[in-house]
Design goal:
The complex is a heterodimer of chains A (about 250) and B (about 450). Chain A is an alpha/beta fold and about 250 residues long. Chain A has helices at about 20-30, 45-55, 75-85, 100-105, 110-135, 155-175, 210-220, 235-240, 245-250; strands at about 10-15, 35-40, 60-65, 90-95, 140-145, 185-190, 225-230. In chain A, strands 3-2-1-4-5-6-7 form a 7-stranded parallel beta sheet, sandwiched between helices. In chain A, strand 2 (about 35-40), helix 2 and strand 3 (about 60-65) form a beta-alpha-beta unit. Chain B has helices spanning about 90-95, 115-120, 125-130, 155-165, 200-205, 245-250, 275-290, 300-305, 335-345, 385-400, 415-420, 425-435, 445, and strands spanning about 5-10, 20-25, 40-45, 60-65, 70-75, 80-85, 100, 135-140, 150, 170-180, 185-195, 215-220, 230-240, 260, 295-300, 310, 320-330, 355-360, 375-380, 405. The two termini of chain B are about 30 Å apart. Classes of the chains: A alpha/beta (about 250), B alpha+beta (about 450). The interface of A and B includes residues 20, 44, 48 and 194 of A.
Chain lengths: ~250, ~450
């Protein structure tokens, strides 16, 4: 059983709450007694997830629509969350859009959607949240990127590149907020068994989204700032990163 | 956006038959729907033994496991509303610490609620409580047309009862409200009655003094001659606090942490043979028959003994097994059970697990399995002679006015099905109303010739 932590009762905002991994996070946070605000594009799904969390774990769960691509709406969205919850302690950014890498070669719209949802939008909304947390000098930001951020590969670099951008941005934010006590944690999941990967051929070591979601929240209990999930991906990516470029560019990855 | 699909081989818990098919797995409720064209069937945890949740060849099975959200809980009424992909196990984990338990629990908690409704499952208390569908107060269905409808015993009762026991063929069950019962503890006060033969077992079942909320018999299906029907009747009820030893009474609603161990490998075909099963049965009889004094046991091992060994179907090897579960009406039950056991013992079909239960009156669902009488279950490893043997057994069964449990069956013919389910036409009328083109269909509906007029 999870013990309620010292921050229990402090509200957490989950962005991209309808994803499998986000649900795992929400469950772990609810077990710890955090009131939640779930954001996403699909109101009916948010409503069902909110009911599930409040019925099973007895926490207050709010929800609201949020579109990462509507950058101008982000400030209002943050305000809405703070007003509804009576404050904000933590943010989990679980929005991820793999997109279609072949389509992205031909159509800028697709390439741009991948960039906005994984990077530009994240910078906008997390930037606003960071300013709030900086003033309050307490709380956390968890950003979910991907192992794809570690090295560009022909099969997913349109997705890996914005995730790598977010990775660097989070590192800078961590550097800036360290003196205030606000934690900035980056999670790099490997393959997770969600709608994003369902039915894709050739996947290996696919992790359960509930386990990954739980471990994302457990990162708060540890001191590490960048976490690979499941942990063995740290080693896999170490190997992949250390392949010299002259060899790497000839590999089919 | 269309959901990703997985092209694969699909089978039930018995691992026979195997059909090529496609799977998808919606994570959002709106994606629980039919494909643009072709047929489909919903699939929960794949715990139906035969082909009930297996699609026609190369058609779609929609896995509902991610649609498992709890939507409302009324502790005063004991009413839980949840999405149909949730498992009974999730319900128990939620309800037990709050002092509630499902009114009807089958032999596994690892099935989905949608599956429990579609098969109208029963437990060891059918003669007192009826079947699962009798405690469902409302069902939300997505019909083949894409329309979402609500039905209950009061609102479109015909569709409700056609869905209970309807093997998932009336629509995709989205969510349901189920009635739970208050319990005092997560313990069962149990007692065993050893029976040297079938006559003794029937005598115990018919004796109101030996009966309890939950009563079931394990039968040694290899015993023959004067020992035919050698069995242990197991009776028990949800323990009240006074029955508990002091060290558990204080924490009477705390579930034991789950320790599930997976069966490690597919056993080779020769491992389960009449000799090994006979040895197991003798040992089991000896240990279980000894528990004649009342004892307290935890809820999990009383209701779901097999769940403790995950993937236990591997016991029967890669070729799989069949479960023959039949109902014989009360008037001829003794005679019918005797004949089936005699045939099984004579054919030396090594049934690892055989169970005999008394059932009570059925509900209004035309395809619901349980009804007033006795049900006998045999687990039989698959081999080339099995289909013929089961065919004979089923013919004998129907001559007694009996029927097979569709959630377990993989071999029955359309004729055997029709004889066993005389109310099929009543069910079919509802099916023709809600899905005249038979878009929702399964390998089972095809095999049993349910898709008449197509």
């Amino acid at each position: 059983m999870t013990q309620p932590s010292a921050s229990a009762g402090q509200p957490v905002w989950i962005l991209g709450a309808t994803s499998g991994m986000a649900r795992g996070c929400a469950i772990e946070l609810a077990k710890r007694g955090h009131p939640l605000y779930l954001s996403g594009r699909d109101d009916e799904e948010l409503r069902r997830l909110a009911l599930d969390l409040s019925v099973r774990y007895g926490v207050t769960v709010h929800h609201g629509e949020f579109d990462i691509e509507e950058i101008d709406s982000h400030a209002d969205a943050l305000k809405q969350v703070i007003e509804t919850c009576g404050g904000l302690y933590g943010v989990v950014f679980a929005i991820g859009y793999l997109g279609d890498h072949l389509k992205a070669r031909e159509e800028w719209r697709e390439a741009n959607a991948i960039i906005v949802r994984n990077f530009t939008g994240a910078v906008s909304v997390l930037g606003l949240a960071a300013n709030h947390l900086e003033k309050q000098a307490d709380g956390f930001i968890i950003g979910v990127t991907s192992v794809a951020a570690d090295r560009g590969r022909q099969s997913n670099y349109p997705y890996g590149a914005p995730k790598a951008g977010l990775s660097a941005w989070l590192a800078g934010l961590r550097n800036r907020l360290a003196p205030t006590g606000v934690r900035v944690i980056e999670i790099k999941p490997g393959y997770v068994d969600t709608a994003m990967t369902y039915g894709l051929p050739g996947l290996f070591l696919v992790a359960d989204p509930n386990d990954v979601g739980r471990d994302i929240v457990r990162a708060l209990d540890k001191s590490r700032d960048v976490l690979y999930l499941p942990g063995f991906w740290r080693l896999i990516m170490l190997i992949i990163r250390s392949v010299p470029e002259p060899i790497f560019k000839k590999m089919k990855l | 956006m269309a959901l990703a699909e997985l092209q694969t081989q699909i089978t039930g818990w018995g691992r026979y038959p195997l059909h090529p098919g496609r799977l998808n797995r919606p994570e959002k409720i709106r994606d629980l729907r039919l494909p643009e064209s072709g047929g489909a069937i919903a699939r929960g945890q794949g715990r139906a033994y035969g082909d009930a949740a297996t699609p026609h060849d190369n058609e779609l099975a929609v896995q509902t496991e991610r649609l498992n959200r709890f939507l409302a809980w009324d502790p005063m009424a004991g009413l839980l509303t949840l999405e149909a992909g949730a498992t009974l196990s999730e319900v128990i984990e939620f309800a037990a610490p709050r002092g509630f338990f499902p009114r009807v629990a089958p032999g596994t908690r690892l099935l989905s609620i949608g599956g429990a409704i579609a098969a109208d499952v029963h437990g060891k208390n059918h003669h007192h409580m009826g079947s699962f569908g009798s405690h469902v107060s409302e069902i939300e269905l997505t019909l083949a047309s894409g329309e979402t409808v609500v039905c209950s015993p009061r609102e479109d009762a015909e569709l409700f009862w056609a869905t209970v026991g309807g093997m998932g063929l009336t629509g995709f069950i989205r969510q349901a409200s189920i009635q739970l019962q208050p319990i005092d503890s997560v313990w069962v006060s149990a007692r065993h009655y050893p029976c040297a033969n079938l006559d003794e077992a029937f005598r115990i079942f018919e004796d109101p003094l030996r009966d309890d909320q939950h009563t079931v018999a394990w039968v040694d299906a290899l015993a023959s001659g004067p020992n035919l029907g050698r069995s242990v009747v197991m009776a028990g009820h949800h323990a009240v606090r006074d029955e508990l030893p002091p060290h558990v009474a204080d924490n009477a609603l705390a579930l034991k942490p789950k320790k599930e161990r997976n069966f490690p490998l597919d056993l080779p075909a020769w491992a389960l043979n009449p000799l090994s099963v006979k040895m197991f049965n003798a040992l089991y009889y000896k240990t279980q028959a000894a528990k004649t004094a009342p004892f307290v046991c935890d809820i999990e091992s009383f209701f779901f003994p097999l769940d403790a060994i995950g993937q236990w179907h591997r016991l029967y090897g890669k070729r799989g097994f069949a479960q023959f579960q039949c109902l014989i009406p009360r008037a001829r039950a003794h005679e019918g059970v005797r004949e089936i056991l005699e045939r099984a013992a004579k054919a030396r079909k090594a049934s690892f697990l055989s169970v005999l239960k008394r059932l009570g009156p059925g509900n209004p669902a035309p395809l619901s399995f349980p009804d007033d009488g006795y049900t006998l279950t045999l687990d039989l490893p698959y081999n080339d002679k099995l289909p013929a043997f089961l065919g004979e057994l089923t013919d004998r069964l129907t001559s007694y006015g009996g029927r097979l449990y569709l959630a377990k069956d993989a071999f029955a013919t359309p004729e055997q099905f029709r004889i066993g389910y005389p109310q099929f036409d009543q069910w079919l009328a509802v099916k023709q109303r809600v899905d005249p083109e038979w878009r929702i269909r399964s390998a089972l509906s095809q095999r049993l010739g349910m898709e008449v007029g197509q």
